[in-house]
Automatic annotation (TrEMBL):
Protein source organism: Ketogulonicigenium robustum
Pfam families cross-referenced by the UniProt entry: CoA_binding_2
Domain CoA-binding residue range list: 9-105
Record's signal peptide: none
InterPro entries the UniProt entry points to: CoA-bd, NAD(P)-bd_dom_sf
Name of this chain's protein: CoA-binding domain protein
Gene name tied to this protein: yccU
PANTHER family: COA-BINDING DOMAIN-CONTAINING PROTEIN (PTHR33303:SF2), CYTOPLASMIC PROTEIN-RELATED (PTHR33303)
Domain of life: Bacteria
Length: 141
């Protein structure tokens, strides 16, 4: 798992946070801010916030609304929402390199993404893994 998480975080430049919350107390908000501070280009994905400015740019309703694609899709949704997210990821062109499910989120549906060549990380926090692997060192340009 460590090699896959490290590779995902080293190779990603642009991250979509699916289930982003405008509430600073929510993990999706805090992790998105952390990733942005670490140098990633982070895009908030939440239909209820679409068009509003979050993380310095307009939030989008769905992944397909992101022009130019993303390298990593970071999911902050319940496990039962994952199959639809996997289908959305598989419809993207270009496809992301990594589908990442946050802590306590797992789904057998991720096998479809893995079968399509997308790296899958489940039940891990991007911010925790970043700090564990790199400390304060930035890995993004």
């Amino acid at each position: 798992m460590t090699d896959q998480t490290k590779t995902a975080l080293e190779q990603a430049r642009r991250i979509a946070v699916v289930g982003y919350s405008a509430n600073p107390a929510r993990p999706s908000h805090r992790v998105a801010q952390f990733l942005q501070a670490a140098g990633y280009d982070v895009i908030a994905v939440n239909p209820g916030l679409a068009g509003q400015i979050h993380l310095g740019k307009p939030a989008v309703a769905q992944l397909s609304d992101i022009a130019g694609g993303v390298d990593l899709v970071d999911v902050f949704r319940a496990s039962d929402a994952v199959p639809a997210i996997v289908d959305e990821v598989l419809d993207l062109d270009p496809r992301p390199q990594t589908l990442w499910l946050q802590l306590d989120i797992t789904s057998p549906a991720t096998q479809k993404a893995a079968d399509a060549g997308i790296a899958v990380v489940e039940d891990r926090c991007t911010a925790i893994e970043y700090q564990r692997l790199f400390g304060a060192q930035r890995v993004t340009p």
